[in-house]
Amino acid sequence: METTETTTAFRGLESRASGRVHETADPTAVPADEQARGLDPAYDYDAVDPEALLRAPGDGPAGVGFGHWRFDALLPFPAATAVSAGEGATPLVPTDRLADELDVDAVYVKDEGRNPTGTVLDRGLSVALTAVAARAADGQDVEPLACASPGNAGQSMAAYAGRADLRSYAFVPSRCAFSNKAMTNVHGGDMRVVGGRFPDAAAAVDEQLETDYTDLGEFATPYRHDGVKTLAFELVADLGAAPDAVVVPTGSGEVVAGIYKGFSELVRVGAIDAVPKIVAAQAAGCAPIAAAVERGLDEPEPWSTPDTICGELEIADPAGGAAAIEAVTESGGTAVAVEDDDILASAVAVAQNEVMEMGVTGGAAPAGAWALAEDGFFDGDETVVLVNSDAGLKTPDVLRSHLMGQGI
After folding, report:
1. Which of 66, 108, 246, 328 is deepest in the core (most CB within 10 A)?
2. Cα 351 from Cα 363, distance rounded (Å)
């Protein structure tokens, strides 16, 4: 019998295919065919007080003012049960120079590099590991945990699995950043380095793990994108209103889908009037979501020849592609593809001018915003948020090589 403690508003797991809500927090209790087509945590929005949801940190019950778990009124599990290292509550940094260059009213960088393992994905892995730890406490055999990852998710999974005293395997491509490989092991996680690119790492999970495992890949668990949505909650809480546009570096579509869900839920509970424009920024060398948006498709077609220095963005067949397309189109946003040189130059420019270490992945956000400004996307009176999705110390060698290529 399931004894996992859930929040008052949590209704269960909703099938994306049928719309049926299964009254459980355990995805393995849902029929296999519905699991395979995707599940999403569902909530009773009438049970959520918007003012209480967005209260200032420390104003709520003990334990709720800690990181993004302060928003547990719209998370599946209460803060008191969370597997957490204080993820969330990341700085929202005003950047007047960028506002002038984009010719808009205000620009902020949401610096997700300040999360425990330096990535926005910590938000989702915290919620996903909370769910798995609860199943383990119920007596289920959940080990090993596994996911294929360009790098960041594998490192984050290892860190949170260590907190939960669970064994994990990260499958990463050989071109994964050294920092991810090193820290995955430092956090106590097992790692398999697979020759080739991300699809090869994904294929290796079933090929090399000769046992049942708990898959913590994006959208394989219903909780990773649901944790990411707290970024949207923090933006509204910090700004006092929704921004006009949010530019998100995009690979798998997980972060775009999560942020869109967060804003949509704030509309449902009456905290904001409308979802801001969501912009998916991709590397031109691997831009299946941007290409699909340009062509008016509901789902992206796999990118045949992925080639970008931005490893976290090199996802040729994104699991969250359809969800990301829905997010940008339903919000009135768009998707944009930018060249690697522009991404690297943007990350360096932010680092040199804004006292902030922006990772290669994060550089796609300012690069995308500059490209949109040149195309006349902004009216001029907007508040724009750029998501720095990971820390500069994830890929310092790539940023330094870019400077060396310029003779610096």
Report:
1. 246
2. 10
Phi, psi of 166 (to 5 degrees): -125, 145
Residues in the chain: 408
pLDDT at 56: 67
- The reply to whether 146 falls in a domain is yes
Indicate left, alpha or beta for 320 from its phi (over 0: left) and psi (-120 to 50: alpha): alpha
Q: Tokens at residue 209, please?
A: 């793990």
Q: What are phi and psi of 64, to 5 degrees?
A: -85, -20
In a domain, 229, yes or no: yes
User: Is 61 a residue whose pLDDT tops 80?
Assistant: no
Query: Into how many domains does the chain fold?
Result: 1
Is 209 contained in some domain?
yes
Q: Which residues of 128-144 are buried (b: 16+ CB within 10 A; e: fewer)?
A: bbbbbbbbbeeeeebbb
| Domain extent for 181 | 87-408
pLDDT tens-digit map of 336-375? 999 999 999 999 999 999 999 999 999 999 999 999 999 9
Reported as a single tens digit per residue, the pLDDT across 126-183 is 999 999 999 999 999 999 999 999 999 999 999 999 999 999 999 999 999 999 999 9
Q: Read out DSSP for 128-143?
A: HHHHHHHHHHTT---P
- Which run of H or of E encompasses 179? helix 178-186
For residue 111, the domain's CATH number is 3.40.50.1100
**Residue 26 CB burial class (10 angstroms; 0-12, 13-18, ≥19):** middle
